[in-house]
Amino acid sequence: GEDVEQSLFLSVREGDSSVINCTYTDSSSTYLYWYKQEPGAGLQLLTYIFSNMDMKQDQRLTVLLNKKDKHLSLRIADTQTGDSAIYFCAESIHTGGFKTIFGAGTRLFVKA
Amino acid sequence: GAGVSQSPSNKVTEKGKDVELRCDPISGHTALYWYRQSLGQGLEFLIYFQGNSAPDKSGLPSDRFSAERTGGSVSTLTIQRTQQEDSAVYLCASSPRGTSGPNEQFFGPGTRLTVL
């Protein structure tokens, strides 16, 4: 079945790098996404990667995809207190349209 | 520009009552999604509308849950005979994409439902 798993918590010090990991099960995923949810707000797309790529860099964000192991990671360089939020990994599955499966979210705590 | 809006922002109801949650997607977006976010849980997919196609209802947890999308725009999620386990934040999202390309979803702020 379709499933996306990620660890629930991560704590880092300001200025360090954060790495949030995710595994997924559906090998037919076309795109994989990272969304950010700040307290009291809806989710916002941070970045995405097409399934035939293995890396994508966008300013402080680096996404790595290991399609063989069905493993996705998000690295945030020079983590700031404003990066504290819940980060959701998600995969799109073609079912004639797009069904998106989200993980449980990783809560990132950034200590000053 | 207007984003996705949801109403009400908070809803407290008694067990056994019916509730309706509303979502106004971004104008022109062809796809609309409903999710449920429970405390400590991820986003649980409920239902997906894409244009004029039949909705994907595979995530609805029971027949007490239903949703419709009128005129390809506003959507209403209805929960009949609410139970305490229905308490959660219900999130709506819309997407401009059809059936190809990355599927960026734009989320509303959610409706927090509390069933007493």
What's a concise summary of this model?
The complex is a heterodimer of chains A (112) and B (116). Chain A is an all-beta fold and 112 residues long. Chain A is built from no helices and 11 strands.
Kindly describe this structure.
The complex is a heterodimer of chains A (112) and B (116). Chain A is mainly beta. Chain A has strands at 4-6, 9-13, 18-24, 31-37, 43-50, 55-58, 61-66, 71-76, 85-94, 98-102, 106-111. In chain A, the strands form two sheets. In chain A, strands 2, 4, 5, 9, 10 and 11 form a six-stranded mixed beta sheet that branches. Chain A starts with a strand and ends with a strand. Chain B has 116 residues and is mainly β. In chain B, the strands form two sheets. In chain B, strands 2, 4, 5, 8, 9 and 10 form a six-stranded mixed beta sheet that branches. At the A-B interface, strand 5, strand 9 and strand 10 of A face strand 4, strand 5, strand 8 and strand 9 of B.
Tell me the layout of helices and strands.
The complex is a heterodimer of chains A (112) and B (116).
Chain A: E1 4-6, E2 9-13, E3 18-24, E4 31-37, E5 43-50, E6 55-58, E7 61-66, E8 71-76, E9 85-94, E10 98-102, E11 106-111
Chain B: E1 5-7, E2 10-13, E3 19-24, E4 31-37, E5 43-50, E6 65-69, E7 75-79, E8 88-95, E9 106-107, E10 111-115
Structural class of chain A: mainly beta
Question: How confident overall, as mean pLDDT of chain B?
Answer: 91
Question: What is the element string of chain A, with H for helices and E for strands?
Answer: EEEEEEEEEEE
Give the amount of beta strand of chain A, in percent.
over 45%
Query: Roughly what percent helix of chain B?
Result: under 10%
Cα distance, first to last residue of chain B? Answer: 37 Å
